[in-house]
C-alpha cells in the first residue's frame, strides 16, 4: 500500500493528513513533506493519522525527527490518532510522553501547550 499526504491550514496550524502505511518504503515521502513545511515556515504541525493502517519504527523515527525540527523553531507537532493498534505502538515505545496525541484535528488545533 502507498502513502497519501495532503496538507491544509486550520487557524495557525498546518494539518498533514496521512493515509496508508508509514513504513521503511513510504516514510521518506512523509519526511520530505515535513522538512518542506518547516523550510517554508510552518512550525506548528498537526499530523492527522486517522487514515494510517500501519506504522513501523522508520515511521516513528520520521515523526520524532519532525518534532525535533519544529522544536528548533519554537514550534510544535501534535498527532491525531484514535486507532488502538497505532496508539499501542506509541504507548509501547514511551512516545506518548513525547507527542501530544489527540482524538480529532479540531481538538489538536485548539489545544494549548
From TrEMBL:
<feature type="domain" description="STAS">
    <location>
        <begin position="3"/>
        <end position="112"/>
    </location>
</feature>
<protein>
    <recommendedName>
        <fullName>Anti-sigma factor antagonist</fullName>
    </recommendedName>
</protein>
<dbReference type="InterPro" id="IPR003658">
    <property type="entry name" value="Anti-sigma_ant"/>
</dbReference>
<dbReference type="InterPro" id="IPR002645">
    <property type="entry name" value="STAS_dom"/>
</dbReference>
<dbReference type="Pfam" id="PF01740">
    <property type="entry name" value="STAS"/>
</dbReference>
<comment type="similarity">
    <text>Belongs to the anti-sigma-factor antagonist family.</text>
</comment>
<dbReference type="InterPro" id="IPR036513">
    <property type="entry name" value="STAS_dom_sf"/>
</dbReference>
